[in-house]
């Protein structure tokens, strides 16, 4: 099996991946329908209302981070996911019923968006941490990248199919279809062989999320990663607002919006697959991707036609997923296992919690100045994140000239000690050997 797909050697991961692809397709179909319903059926092209909907859906991970990370670390993640996936399925059926009977209102949609957000607040850190339960530490970065590939393969199909279903059958049936796809993820979780899961480090010490905060506070590299992801997440990754309003600007309907989302996924899938080829996640890749995102966003804002805008979205999608996949893999593989759930909850709070701050602002900018201005704001945020990343590399002293090449630079990376692989039996408690601070040896002159 090629290095790109090495995580597929695990039965549990193969099963998980198959269920995730199907479920993610339904998720993207529903996301497209929800955005279009708020923008065109419940309001008269009100981008601010769409931003509020996104804020309600993505705000709970930030508000509940102290609880969700603790749940991901303390309880059986597989059972947590069975509970959250079932709840999400029931909520999708509820929205479908209200849309099909014609009684859905904007306040009701706000309530459902908040309910989706609360459920996803528990689902996301458990889902991310569960990946490391199915594969070895050495394959975690690869598994995270393949997860992202699954997500973006679905993104290629889901929005376009969702847009077509809205036109052909109506938005309510898209939510019904999504509810059905949740069964794939639930079945996959039931098929997981629990005896093949990697034993988890037991952590019953007090401190809760405070220990996660203290851990991150002592890791300047993680702080920089979190800040960069927050900036781009808050101001640059409001794609539903950008794509839907740009589709309207180019006189396109729901199918045109769906196509833009799928085009964005072409670059996203490419970025995820390339990330899967890398042996580990590196900060320098994250920094470069942030810079590319900023430039690509500014270019997209200047495109004069629908298809020219769509073409640049490929590069936007590529840089976005490269950045997020690298950040996720870096956080997972360089964090102490006993605190991984809490640190991932903090990370997901940054990724998803940035939306409640940025989405309403983006919606207001669209209403006041047009969608192109909002995209420019996102591009500037990307360039600022790039500048912060480069500044940290220079300040930290990790960026230096390679000894074997006069004009090339290299960056010292934080990564798990290689001794973990050689000393990790199935029931071994690796709290000590999973330390992530690099060992610095004095250089000999």
UniProtKB/TrEMBL annotation:
UniProt keyword Cytoplasm present: no
Compartment(s): Cell membrane
InterPro entries the record matches: MFS_dom, MFS_trans_sf, TM_effector
Signal peptide coordinates: none
A Pfam family: MFS_3
Transmembrane spans: 49-67, 88-116, 160-192, 222-244, 256-276, 283-301, 307-331, 343-366, 372-395
Record-annotated Major facilitator superfamily (MFS) profile domain positions: 181-445
Keywords linked to the UniProt accession: Cell membrane, Membrane, Transmembrane, Transmembrane helix, Transport
Presence of keyword Zinc-finger: no
Major site of localization recorded for this protein: membrane
Lipid bilayer topology: Multi-pass membrane protein
Top-rank taxon, per record: Bacteria
PANTHER family linked: INTEGRAL MEMBRANE EFFLUX PROTEIN-RELATED, STAPHYLOFERRIN A TRANSPORTER
Protein name (database record): MFS transporter
């Amino acid at each position: 099996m090629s290095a790109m797909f090495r995580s597929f050697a695990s039965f549990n991961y193969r099963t998980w991946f198959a269920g995730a692809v199907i479920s993610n397709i339904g998720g993207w179909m529903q996301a497209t329908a929800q955005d279009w319903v708020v923008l065109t059926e419940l309001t008269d092209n009100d981008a601010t209302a769409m931003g509020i909907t996104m804020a309600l859906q993505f705000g709970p991970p930030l508000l509940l981070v102290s609880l969700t990370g603790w749940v991901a670390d303390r309880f059986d993640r597989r059972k947590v996911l069975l509970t959250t996936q079932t709840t999400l399925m029931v909520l999708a059926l509820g929205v479908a019923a209200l849309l099909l009977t014609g009684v859905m209102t904007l306040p009701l949609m706000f309530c459902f968006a908040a309910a989706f957000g609360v459920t996803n607040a528990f689902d996301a850190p458990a889902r991310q941490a569960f990946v490391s339960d199915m594969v070895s530490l050495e394959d975690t970065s690869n598994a995270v990248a393949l997860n992202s590939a699954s997500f973006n393969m679905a993104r290629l199909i889901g929005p376009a199919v969702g847009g077509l279903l809205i036109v052909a059958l109506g938005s309510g049936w898209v939510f019904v279809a999504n509810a059905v796809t949740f069964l794939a993820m639930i079945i996959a979780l039931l098929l997981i062989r629990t005896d093949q899961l990697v034993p988890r480090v037991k952590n019953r010490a007090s401190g809760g999320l405070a220990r996660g905060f203290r851990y991150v506070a002592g890791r300047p590299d993680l702080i920089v990663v979190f800040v960069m992801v927050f900036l781009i997440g808050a101001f640059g990754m409001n794609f539903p607002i950008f794509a839907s309003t740009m589709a309207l600007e180019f006189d396109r309907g729901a199918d045109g919006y769906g196509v833009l989302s799928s085009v964005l996924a072409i670059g996203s899938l490419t970025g995820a697959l390339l990330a899967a080829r890398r042996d580990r996640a590196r900060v320098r890749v994250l920094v470069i991707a942030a810079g590319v995102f900023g430039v690509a966003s500014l270019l997209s804002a200047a495109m004069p036609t629908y298809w020219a805008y769509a073409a640049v979205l490929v590069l936007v999608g590529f840089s976005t997923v490269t950045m997020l996949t690298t950040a996720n893999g870096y956080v997972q593989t360089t964090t102490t296992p006993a605190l991984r759930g809490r640190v991932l909850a903090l990370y997901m709070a940054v990724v998803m919690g940035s939306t409640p701050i940025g989405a309403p602002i983006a919606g207001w900018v669209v209403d006041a100045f047009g969608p192109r201005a909002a995209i420019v704001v996102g591009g500037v945020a990307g360039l600022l994140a790039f500048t912060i990343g480069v500044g940290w590399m220079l300040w930290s002293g990790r960026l230096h000239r390679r000894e074997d090449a006069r004009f090339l630079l290299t960056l010292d990376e934080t990564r798990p000690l290689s001794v973990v692989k050689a000393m990790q039996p199935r029931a071994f408690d690796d709290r000590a050997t999973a330390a992530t601070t690099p060992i610095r040896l004095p250089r000999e002159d």
